[in-house]
Amino acid sequence: MMPSWNSRNQLFRKEGRLIRWSYVLAGCALISFCIGGTWLLAQDKNPFARDAKAAKLGEFQFRANCAFCHGLGARGGGRGPDLTRAQKRHGSSDADLFRTINEGVPGTAMPPNGATQQGVGMTDEEIWQVISYIRSVEKKADATSTGNAAHGKELFQGTAGCSTCHMIQGKGGRIGPDLSTAGSARSTEYLVESVRMPSKRLAQGISEAMKEFSQEYETVTVVTADGTKFMGVVLNEDHFTLQMMDTRENLHLFEKDKLKSLEKSRESLMPAYDQKMLSDKDLQDVVAYLLLVGAQ
Ligand code: HEC
Ligand code: HEC
To answer: Does the structure show a pLDDT above 80 at 212?
Structure first.
């Protein structure tokens, strides 16, 4: 049976309304897609590229939020890598830098935007200004090319003896910090200084720089109640206990009040390598090796 003219008309009108609504919805979707699209595009390229004024403003932001770890001039410090290297580990494009700075590097000390002590996030514009600043201090050539990494590896594992104390990619000793990421997390100057003057700045756990009590490789000497002496590095410590690794890589957990003596020193367990132990040329090769490993 055919529906009456009246109800058919109603049906038709309903459908018409539906069709009109779907046009409106599609239109909205299209508009928001376009807005979203241009917004994404805006994040891909630095709107302040090669703008000296923006770089200056970025330098100001950098000093306030980043120099603490990445050093003045972005040349790297004990806690963050040298950002003047053209080749960045987490991507070198504008979009990569934006993402790294905005989101941080999970599992490392590199914090997401707004998570530093001040807790004040930078606006997108300010992040781009910081990127302009980083571009303005970037070196054209890469430091890796100045040393012979293959020879550096031989030295590291052989005559220089580094691997007796340091692990790289799962191989080596454990009394010193694992150096697999040192080449990316530390500046070249810092690496050189660590070898020539290890006691000047003791290493700090790379992923722990944000902790209130980050681990430092302090040298410790304890004498237990029965007179046994252990020397090594502090792994963990609170008011009552001390966890350490001795020079034979044995772990110990001591209750402090049961010890005969406990002495800590900021003199590194690592020997200071002078020119005779490791020439400048050889050190350059070792550093090239660390940079190469760090970039992997
Ligand atoms: C608490 C220390 C700390 C602070 C503060 C910090 N960073 Fe970092 N940043 C790091 C560390 C550590 C890494 C290396 C992460 C890794 O292991 O790859 C890093 C990595 C980066 C990288 C990637 C480098 C590469 O080779 O890919 C960029 C870019 C960067 N930081 C920029 C910044 C900027 C800009 C700021 C300030 C807004 C900042 N960082 C603040 C510690 C810090
Ligand atoms: C006897 C053990 C020993 C030897 C040998 C040794 N180191 Fe170390 N190294 C350490 C210890 C312990 C530390 C941590 C304390 C400090 O920062 O000095 C350290 C720290 C470092 C650091 C700083 C790491 C950081 O993240 O801050 C670097 C880089 C380093 N060593 C490189 C080398 C190189 C390269 C060699 C070989 C030429 C070498 N070490 C030989 C024990 C050693």
So the answer is: no
CA 246 to chain centre: 28
Side-chain-side CA neighbours of residue 43 (13 Å):
15
Q: Distance of CA 201 to CAs 5, 78, 194, 214, 268, Å? A: 91, 8, 7, 14, 9
- Which single residue is written with the structure tokens 């002078």? 274
Report the phi/psi class of residue 108: left, alpha or beta, with left for phi > 0 and alpha for psi in -120 to 50: beta
Residue 278 pLDDT level (bands cut at 50, 70, 90) = very high
Mean pLDDT (the chain, rounded): 82
Ligand 1 test: best mutation among 69, 98, 117, most atoms within 8 Å of CB? Answer: 69
- Higher pLDDT: 50 or 246? It is 246
CA distance 55 to 35: 28
Ligand 2 centroid – CA 126 distance (Å): 37
Task: Write out the two tokens for 122.
Answer: 């930078």
Q: Is residue 241 scored above 90 in pLDDT?
A: yes
Does the Cβ of 179 fall within 6 Å of ligand 1?
Answer: no
Which of 137, 142, 213, 204 is closest to 177 using CA atoms?
Answer: 204
CB within 8 A of 91, min separation 6: which ones?
A: 97, 99, 100
Share of the chain above pLDDT 70, in %: 78
Q: Residue 204 CA: which ligand is closest?
A: 2
Q: Which bin fits 119, alpha (ψ -120 to 50), beta or left (φ > 0)?
A: left
Mean local confidence (pLDDT), 56-64: 93
Widest Cα–Cα separation across the chain = 108
155 Cβ closer than 6 Å to some ligand 1 atom: no
What does the pLDDT average to over 148-164?
Answer: 96
Q: What is the distance between the alpha carbons of residues 215 and 204, in angstroms, rounded to a whole number? A: 6
